[in-house]
């Protein structure tokens, strides 16, 4: 017997399919637009686009590269992830496994509210309040004192104040991506089969052993995919990073790429945000920015696609 097909079901199915196809087409159109506008600038670029730190777009031939932008973008996002993921897992475990229901609801509500705070508020708070706080300076001094011999953590002359550094930007990014990772982790932990938890408890397992043996293994793929989604958000964050990061002079940047996180810099997003208004009147300068936007588009697409694959693998298991 054939299932009954109602008009409403057919309309809903058609609209859903159409919207899905249009979204896929929109992504392809954006990708094609970026390539179309970036190719002329890339063909006129006289230096290596991937390894150069120069950014001269008011002369011909052009001289621009993304090495410094790529470094600042990636290292600030990874540092944010290293801070946010343990906190997110701990909060999610507290909400789902440890806290009483009367407390778990308000805590989850407050964490979710962090996602509703505008980026400009995070940027102002991070640059004005967090940057001048003694806590950030104290953490910076501890890191440089213990690990200053490593190029990534060495103190930099002229940057005695933590304001405007990659380190400060990464801490603000960690707070911004915390709700995303927490929400995904919380949802997958709530889906842990109850019989597995009860079986572990029946065997005399402690609360921590239940979490370690039943909850975390079941939630691993969801936690990883949530972390990847948070990484994608951190890579593309614009306004907060633009307000916090202090730029480095082009001459210093060309001479040497400082790997320390206790210095300033620019990410892909902050570079585009700062230079876009001036570049609109210069096709070559605009093309260079579009080329950097294309790089960011590819990176974030790969990150989100990886998160999708990890999530699907977890569901199949």
Write the layout of secondary structure elements.
Elements lengths: L6 H37 L11 E2 L6 E2 L2 H32 L2 H13 L5 H12 L3 H14 L18 H25 L3 H9 L4 H30 L2 H6 L5 H6 L12 H12 L3 H34 L1
Antiparallel strand pairs: 1-2
Helix pairs in contact: 1-12, 2-3, 2-6, 2-8, 3-6, 4-6, 6-8, 7-8, 8-12, 11-12
| CATH architect. name | Orthogonal Bundle
Number of E-type strands? 2
- Average pLDDT: 85
Helix-residue proportion = over 70%
Structural class: mainly alpha
CATH level 4 superfamily: MetI-like
Based on CA inertia axes, which overall geometry fits?
globular
Percent of residues in beta strands: under 5%
Give me the strand/helix succession: HEEHHHHHHHHHHH
Describe this structure in words.
The model has no long low-confidence stretch (mean pLDDT 85). Helix 7 packs antiparallel against helix 8, helix 8 runs antiparallel to helix 12 and helix 11 runs antiparallel to helix 12. It is built from 12 helices and 2 strands. The relative contact order is 0.15. It has a single domain, classed as MetI-like (MetI-like fold). The two termini are 33 Å apart. The protein is globular. The chain has a two-stranded antiparallel sheet. The protein has 317 residues and is an all-alpha fold.
């Amino acid at each position: 017997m054939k299932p009954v097909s109602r008009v409403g079901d057919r309309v809903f199915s058609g609209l859903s399919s159409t919207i899905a196809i249009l979204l896929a087409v929109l992504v392809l159109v954006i990708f094609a637009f970026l390539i179309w506008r970036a190719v002329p600038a890339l063909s006129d670029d006289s230096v290596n686009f991937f390894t150069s730190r120069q950014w001269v777009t008011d002369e011909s031939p052009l001289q621009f590269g993304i090495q410094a932008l790529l470094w600042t973008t990636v290292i600030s996002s990874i540092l944010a992830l290293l801070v946010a993921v343990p906190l997110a897992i701990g909060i999610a475990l507290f909400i789902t496994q440890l806290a009483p229901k009367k407390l778990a609801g308000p805590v989850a509500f407050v964490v979710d509210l962090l996602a509703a705070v505008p980026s400009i508020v995070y940027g102002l708070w991070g640059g004005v309040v967090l940057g001048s706080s003694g806590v950030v300076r104290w953490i910076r001094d501890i890191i440089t004192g213990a690990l200053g011999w490593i190029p990534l953590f060495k103190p930099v002359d002229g940057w005695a104040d933590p304001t405007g550094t990659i380190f400060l930007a990464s801490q603000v990014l960690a707070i911004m991506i915390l709700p995303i990772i927490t929400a995904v982790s919380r949802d997958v932990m709530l889906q842990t089969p109850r019989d597995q938890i009860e079986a572990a408890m029946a065997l005399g397992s402690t609360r921590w052993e239940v979490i370690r043996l039943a909850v975390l293994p079941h939630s691993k793929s969801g936690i990883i995919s949530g972390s990847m989604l948070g990484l994608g958000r951190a890579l593309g964050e614009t306004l907060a990073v633009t307000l916090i990061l202090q730029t480095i002079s082009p001459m210093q940047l060309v001479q040497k790429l400082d790997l320390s996180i206790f210095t300033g810099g620019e990410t892909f997003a902050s570079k585009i945000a700062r230079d876009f208004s001036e570049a609109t009147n210069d096709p070559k300068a605009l093309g260079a920015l579009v080329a950097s936007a294309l790089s960011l588009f590819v990176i974030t697409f790969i990150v989100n696609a990886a998160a999708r694959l990890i999530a699907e693998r977890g569901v199949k298991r």
